[in-house]
Structures are given as C-alpha cells and as structure tokens.
C-alpha cells in the first residue's frame, strides 16, 4: 500500500473539510446553501396558484414534466419587497428526491468554506430561525448566513411536502 506524503495528506484533508455554497441575497443579507442541492438557476415565470396556500408559496410550475412548488423566501422571512419581473431569480433545488424552487433577490457567487470558517449561528438577529442555519461564514469583509435548505424546506413551518403528499394520495 502506497503512503501519502504530508503535502498530499494536507491537500486531501483541506479538500474533505471544504464545502461549496451558492450565495444569494435576501434583502440586505447574503445567504448560502450547499451547491450540491442546486439543480438549476432560472428566471421567474408565471405560476399556477394553489388555493388556500400561504402567501409565501407562490404556486407551482411544470418543469419538464415535474410539478414544482415555488416558495418565495423574501415573503416567508419578510426581508425584502417581493417584485416579480425579468430580473427575479428562482433557484431550483433537489430536496429529498423532489424539486422545489425558491425565489431570491439575486444570486451572488459560489464560495468554498472550510469547517474552520463556519461559526455557530446566533439565536437572534437574522430572518431565519437558527434551527435552519448551519452557521455563519466569514467571506471577504462580511458574513454569509449558511442555510440548511433541506431542513428548512422539509420543516412543518414551510409545509410543502405534507401538502404535496396529501395531493398525491388524493389523486391515486
């Protein structure tokens, strides 16, 4: 068995501890989510409204045969004016083998963050409940709020998957 040099071990360790995040803006704050869950980034398109849905669930779209719920995080967390035009961005995510779209103000960049650069989330002062945060990362001269998007989207607070399951069971 071949042994790794100390330089190769350091490279392997730093690569293993680093995660890539797609950063986006909600209001004045910069957020990040694990890029591995991002399916695609696209412009906002008209949705089919769902009766009695909360205001942050804009509706659903047909994305190449998949019915995709669209959640406006700006509305959910009351962090910015929700306008819908050619500049509105939707990030399509893979969450528990389903596709969900989230509306954000803008997409910024892809960043690499090591475990050492992640600080525990505060218990106050950000729009997201800290249960849905992986932490805060120092990037350049600011902080990026790292969202655990799977925990957020599957939460009872958002409630998408329960309502989707009920619709699917009702149509069988």
Write up what this structure looks like.
The protein is an alpha+beta fold. The protein is built from 4 helices and 11 strands, in the order αβββββαββββββαα. It has a 6-stranded mixed sheet. Strands 3-6-7-5-4 form a 5-stranded mixed sheet. A hairpin with a 2-residue loop joins β1 and β2. The longest helix has 12 residues. The protein is globular, with a radius of gyration of 18 Å. The relative contact order is 0.19. The N terminus and C terminus are likely disordered.
Q: On the 0-100 scale, what is the average pLDDT?
A: 82
Q: SSE order, as H and E?
A: HEEEEEHEEEEEEHH
What is the β-strand count? 11
What spatial form do the alpha-carbon principal axes imply?
globular
The main pleated sheet reads as: 6 strands, mixed
Poorly predicted ranges: 1-15, 163-172
- Main sheet: which strands, in order across? 8-1-2-11-10-9
What class would the helix/strand composition place it in?
alpha+beta
Number of alpha- plus pi-helical segments? 4
Radius of gyration: 18 Å
